[in-house]
Amino acid sequence: MMTYTKRDIVRRVAEANDEPMIKVEPWVDSVIVAIREIMMSANTECRIEIRDFGVFEVKETKAKPKARNPKTNEVIYVPAHRKTHFKPSKLLKTFLRQPLEELKKK
User: Fold this and answer.
1) DSSP calls for the chain
2) What whole-number distance in Å separates Cα of residue 64 and Cα of residue 79?
3) What are phi and psi of 64, to 5 degrees?
4) Non-local CB neighbours of 23 within 8 Å, separated by 6+ positions
5) CA 76, CA 22: separation in Å to the nearest integer?
6) Rounded CA separation 43/23 (Å)
7) What pLDDT score does 45 carry?
8) For residue 21, what pLDDT is reported?
9) Helix axes 6-17, 21-41, angle to 10 degrees
10) Confidence at residue 44, expressed as pLDDT on a 0 to 100 scale
11) Which of 30, 55, 71, 104 has the most CB atoms at less than 10 Å from its CB?
12) Phi and psi torsions of 4, nearest 5°
């Protein structure tokens, strides 16, 4: 499986805009920091919608008073907390649902 890093994103943005990577990197960092700060500052829930990409959501989970530790079988209490969720856009979802054989032919 291929892993992409922030540096790969910076490289793609720099190539797409015909700019040096050193000039583009602060902008990419700023976007990532802004998304992170919005998600972290949400009281309980928030939604960040990026058209033609997807939606990032912070959702509240319910407390689980009778959860079980599978390793020890001990009954434990799991407090309510927040979790992240990503829902891809229709454009992205349509592309990802294409059979792999079609993509290999291209």
Assistant:
1) -----HHHHHHHHHHHHT--HHHHHHHHHHHHHHHHHHHHH-SS-EEEEETTTEEEEEEEPPPEEEEE-TTT--EEEE---EEEEEEE-HHHHHHHTS-HHHHHH-
2) 6
3) -120, 95
4) 14
5) 49
6) 34
7) 87
8) 95
9) 130
10) 79
11) 55
12) -105, 140
Domains of the chain: residue spans and CATH = 1-43 (no CATH), 51-106 (4.10.520.10)
Which residues does 65 contact at the CB level (< 8 Å), separation at least 6? 77
Provide the token pair at 1: 């499986």
8 Å CB contact between 83 and 46: no
What pLDDT, on a 0 to 100 scale, did the predictor assign at position 103? 62
